[in-house]
Specification:
26% of the residues lie in helices and 26% in strands. By secondary structure, it is α+β, with helices and mostly antiparallel strands. α2 runs antiparallel to α3 and α4 crosses α6.
């Protein structure tokens, strides 16, 4: 796996493959990659389907990070950076406690889809959402700012879902980069949905920047499903890194690093100052 440079943000998108019956639960190969804490958390999910998803996503992320860190996936130890607002480590950004490194990462999943962002020396947030038929009109009234809501309602129904998910993934990416999560109202983060593909988002982080650069990832149709997925990556707006998209897939009982030749992203890269 290529080295992660300080001026780059590497992005992997994966899909949890349905290898056999969901009732079979998580793959033993995936579970073997997890820490004791992750295994315990996996067992807290009531549905075997959700156990399989959790194990596949976290094992896949570990395999990729292991390639970046030149170590074995099960040996990586994770912690959390204290939240920049309250100091709580329960919801701060994830960090790598071992091995010693300046590599940072963000991980998100929705349904069978997951997204991993890896960089060096900078906070990074990732969010992926599968368009799942939820009532976006109802959510928009509580999650969007007045300006965002006005922009959404100025468009017809088909376009409104796209606008909502663009706003939501941008907001989540910024809040995850800060580690605040939903401890603040999403409506307090203005993400400029009228700007296509890239937006500068003002949001002060006590431990970091006051402005974020957010890139939308290309919208894709989920294989074998009418559902679409949306993604966004947030990083500090000053000296932004180049975004490099990798083709990968998580599958139970696939090779040691979870990579596949089948690409989920188009062969393109975006980056540099907006």
């Amino acid at each position: 796996m290529s080295a992660v440079r300080a001026n780059e943000i590497h992005i992997w998108h994966g899909i949890v493959e349905h290898a056999g019956d969901w009732a079979s639960g998580p793959s033993a190969v995936d579970v073997a990659c997890l820490s004791e804490g992750e295994r315990a958390r996996c067992q807290t999910f009531g549905r075997r389907m959700d156990q399989r998803r959790f194990a596949a996503v976290h094992a896949g992320a570990r395999r990729i990070l292991a390639g970046c860190l030149d170590t074995a996936a099960p040996l990586i130890r994770f912690g959390r950076v204290p939240c920049c607002r309250c100091g709580d480590t329960g919801h701060g950004p994830p960090r790598i406690d071992w091995p010693d490194t300046d590599i940072t990462f963000g991980l998100s999943h929705s349904g069978d889809h997951w997204l991993l962002a890896v960089t060096r020396g900078r906070p990074v947030g990732a969010d992926v959402e599968l368009a799942s038929g939820v009532d976006t009109a109802l959510l928009a009234r509580t999650c969007l700012s007045p300006a965002e809501l006005a922009y959404l309602t100025a468009h017809d129904g088909a376009r409104r879902d796209d606008i909502f998910y663009t706003c939501w993934t941008r907001k989540e990416a910024v809040l995850k980069a800060c580690g605040i999560g939903l401890a603040v109202p999403p409506s307090s983060v203005e993400v400029a949905p009228a700007l296509s593909l890239r937006a500068r988002v003002p949001f002060a982080c006590a431990a970091g920047p006051r402005e974020w650069l957010v890139d939308d990832l290309a919208r894709h149709q989920a294989p074998g499903s009418p559902a679409r997925w949306f993604g966004a990556i947030a990083q500090p707006a000053t000296a932004p890194g180049q975004i490099l998209l990798h083709a990968t897939a998580v599958a139970a009982e696939r090779g040691s690093r979870g990579e596949s030749g089948a690409g989920s992203f188009p062969a393109r890269a975006t980056g540099g100052p907006a």
